[in-house]
User: Fold this.
Amino acid sequence: MRLTSVRLDEVELPLVEPFETSFGVERKRRFLVVHLETGDGLEGWGECAAATDPLYSSESVATARWILSERLIPLLFQLPDPTPERFLKAASRFRGNRMAKAAVEIALTDLRARAAHKSVAQFLGSRRRRVHVGVSVGIQPTAARLVARVGRYLEDGYDRIKLKVRPGWDAAPVGAVRRAYPDVELWVDANQAYPLRAGGAIRAWAEKYGVAQVEQPFAERSIQAHAALAHGASFRVCLDESVVDEPSLEDALSAHAVTSLNVKVARVGGLSTGLRLARRAAQARVPSWVGGMLESGIGRAHNVALASTPAFGLSSDLSASDRYYHEDLTDPPFVLGHRSTLEVPSGPGIGVGIVGRILRRRRRATRTFRP
Ligand code: OSB
Ligand code: MG
Assistant:
């Protein structure tokens, strides 16, 4: 199978509402879309989750555009019969840049699944028709606004709520949500915002308000601090930014620093690595779930496919299209179904269509590469 063209589109989609985390506020999302075409009329779609600024990790739209245009796409054209595995192997001589690599790896997975007349989910060994999902709720101006926001998501049907927290936005808002909704499953995510000495305080409010999971309170490299927090805790300690590959997962497992694993396709450099990490964690009795990066329907379709494989046990951060965008790039939209689930698309490849009209209207730049 030979690639005849690779197109890189830079797209901007406004979010339905601002999303604030400990590292900043996002009002719109700018990201790259990868479109592959072969001589026999097959295609593959991918999305790069890197944002305008390198706040979540060191990658950004600009760094991803550079490594894709100048290194990864030329490398892709050198492969006579590109598969996700062969691409990642060839790309491994370039360090890091996992979000950019993931964008190509997922597009190749879509292409290969279509060639095999399978959905991406089937191609990955999925068994489920629906995946259990929750919603990630950004920092709000006041605790009362947060309680109201959570209430609307519960009415929509989400049965697991993840609150973004940071120093100064934790015990009070978490307590307010807990008092308003005594039974809801509550998780929190700090995106590395706490100093190492904050462990005792975090444990106190998390236990007091029955928080089921605390995600990445400390810096990426702080494995021992996460281990100390997990020791004897009533909640799971989840790692997100700290785990980017197999060695970092092994270190976290042997230190007992991880009791829940957030697997993001973008962060770990693709679906195949994500699947391996979740399987390895399951072997160590650590449950996994799929994290999101506010992806458009393209990235979300890949995430949903991954979440439907047997290695994933907890609810994923994959919400309905209308939680992110008024106008998504894909059709049909993802809608929340019974018991807080999304349906796994079963058509060929990612199983959802790309709306060319919306893609062209939202495109800010485009470049086509040929062998
Ligand atoms: O840490 O999980 C995170 C979004 C951008 C960057 C980091 C994170 C997030 C989310 C969004 O929590 C989850 C989603 O896509 O629904
Ligand atoms: Mg996170």
Observations:
- Residues 128 and 308 are 5 Å apart (CA to CA).
